[in-house]
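Hi L.,

You mentioned the student needs an example of a multi-chain input paired with its predicted structure. This one should do, with 423 residues in total across all chains.
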Amino acid sequence: MNKPIAVDDANFDQAILKSETPVLVDFWAPWCRPCIMAAPVLEELAEEYAGRITIAKLDVDQNARTAVKYGIMAIPNLIIFKHGKPTSQIVGYRPKAELKRELDAALE
Amino acid sequence: MNNEYEVIVIGGGPAGLTAGLYTSRARLSSLLIERGLVGGQIADAELVENFPGFPEGVSGPELGQLMNQQATKHGLNTIIAEVIGIELQGEKKVVMTTKGNFTAKAVIIASGSERRKLGIPGEEKFSGKGVSYCATCDAPFFKEKPVAVVGGGDAAITEALHLVKFVSRVIVIHRRDQLRATRILQEKAFSEPKIEFLWNTVVEEIEGEGTVKRLKLRQVITGEKSTLDVSGVFVSIGLTPGTDYLKGVLPLDAASYIITNERMGTEIPGIFAAGDIRLNSARQAITAAGDGATAAIYAEEFISQQPFTSLPSEV
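Structure written out for the whole complex:
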């Protein structure tokens, strides 16, 4: 069972920016209800895209440095990184089908 | 998983959970389909003070959880999936979802509504860069900064009252000269020193460099234009029904709400609607719950073919 991985300020560079495969990072916080809503969808995506795309979660409350670096001012906020570079961003709760379209585009 | 039910309820807010409670207690096999988390919009409210039975108020998420527990205890099944469409196959209704197709004799649509956007230049561009639709999510990103709230209803004023805990000042921009919000919320807002009001004013454009810096405003009576420096703008100008998946299936009004009769029935026998998604809904948790109960009772009547009461027939 592939699950989203938790990342933080300390391991962000290693886990995300140096990743060989594309990574979708979910910037979230425990007070954000749409973030909690999105969690089961991200778990399903982690399973469906296992080995192709890594799904990661960063708690912006605990990891302000990374959140500020990427200009996060609204959550949920999903950024897809390829070879260390952000290639697309999705702000707000979105249906799974829409997230899949973004992930499929990242694989092309 | 079982794919055939007597009743399918779409949406897990107060309307859907109440409908599911009633159909489950009627011993109808019932499936509730929710796309995210049960509770609905009520779960965004920090404190719900107008749901009878909770004299001290109740937190929105807790109220949603309690409704869910109660319905589940009586046998309601729930899945997390998005509904893509509904199809009629003779008497059967097929509900197509991201987790496959489910069929039922009756369907109760209670999938609520979504935030309406301003539709002005800069809104899309700065979405997530200072433009927000969720104060409870994003208020902490604006610590000690000035922000605007656009709107004058319960949701807008509730957001303004939440924001004052974080930001330096809140400017409420409303296109009318008075608020639509409930009096008790107005009293709280008027006595809050961090909240200011700009009446008869609309936002015409959102400007910034990278992030939101200012709003271009127009006074609707005088036509006078001005700018307002803010770091964020919270849009709370009402809701729009989430009925895209129903186009071509059910008649909708011009604003896409579902038209129902007083039994929550739609033009298609066996398809009911309840709560905010319905034209002329009062948009309260308690009225949504009432709609859900009504829809469930008439769905049961539809399935059993036994008249519920000796009510006079519709005139």
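You could point out the following to them. Chain B has two domains: 4-114+239-303, 117-235. Chain B is about 20% helix and 30% strand.

Best wishes,
N.
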